[in-house]
Write a structure and sequence with these properties.
Endonuclease, Chain A, 5 helices, about 130 residues, alpha+beta
Length: about 130
């Protein structure tokens, strides 16, 4: 999906997306940087924290049992993202509960080892006189 399409989607946000974006933007949520309408491969995620590897989708009724969403979720999961889906009504009526679910996913991502972490050695200790 093109950058132009993502930009157009940013201008045409739903009420639920606006409400959630207000809570996620400007590092307001746990100090994490979230982006909106983020191109990831051929897809555009509603919201994503690249550092936490969490993608948030806010869906209307047209997404109920949608095969394209399953394909997108699999694509994102294969790239290490955790995909969270919320209905518009849940975001509008239960914003705090949605944020608690996002928080739990972020905490879970923090505790999971990052890919390749077993291969990384500890940083070298500083030479004599360095690091003071």
């Amino acid at each position: 999906m093109s950058i132009a399409r993502a930009k157009a989607l940013r201008k045409d946000m739903t009420d639920a997306e606006r409400r959630l974006w207000y809570r996620l933007r400007a590092r307001r949520f746990q100090g994490l940087k979230f982006k909106r309408q983020v191109p990831i491969g051929p897809f555009v995620a509603d919201f994503a924290s690249m550092r936490a590897k969490v993608v948030i989708e806010v869906d209307g009724g047209q997404h109920d049992e949608n095969q394209k969403d399953k394909i997108r979720d699999q694509f994102l999961s294969e790239r290490g993202f955790r995909v969270l889906r919320f209905w518009n009504n849940d975001v509008l009526r239960s914003t705090e509960a949605v944020l608690e679910t996002i928080s739990a996913a972020v905490e879970s991502a923090k505790q999971a080892p990052s890919p390749g972490s077993a291969l990384r050695a500890s940083p070298p200790s500083p030479r004599w006189g360095e690091g003071k």
